[in-house]
Amino acid sequence: MAEGPAVEDLVPSAQAQVAGILHDMDCNGTTLEHLSPGECLRLVGQVPLGRIVYTRQALPAVELVNFAMDDGDIIIRTDSGGKLAAATRGAVVAFEADSVDTVTHAGWSVTVVGYSRAVVDSEEIRRLEQVNLLPWVPGERDHFIRISPSIVNGRRVGARSVLEGGNAGSI
Q: How far, CA to CA in Å, does 165 sit from each of 154, 159, 162?
């Protein structure tokens, strides 16, 4: 009787997942690339919208938000009396941003997990008011939330020729 592969050959290891290396290629030329944290944050900084995932009344909540990047942190501007501001004070939250092309089936997705905190320093608030982070919805948006990334994961999928063409970051 022939022996099969060893158990360790069937179980992925942490060493096998090197960021920035193509890990999988389908027979049709589609690739899946795991992205480094630096590349993830660079890509996130290229899009205007993301989703914040937080806990509201002990249940998961997701909101679409516009945001800006500031020194590697994600900045969201919201209403100081709103549910989002109240629920994210000192909380662990997730933030997701992506860019996809449904025609070529190419794109990327990044998830950031980190602590959120209200920006309360008046000098920092004045500086953030100068950042190009204008509210998309009516009403007073006088409150800034800063999310400092602790865990950053991302991947890019697409045809190998699209990924190598240099357009993968702006799909």
A: 19, 10, 5
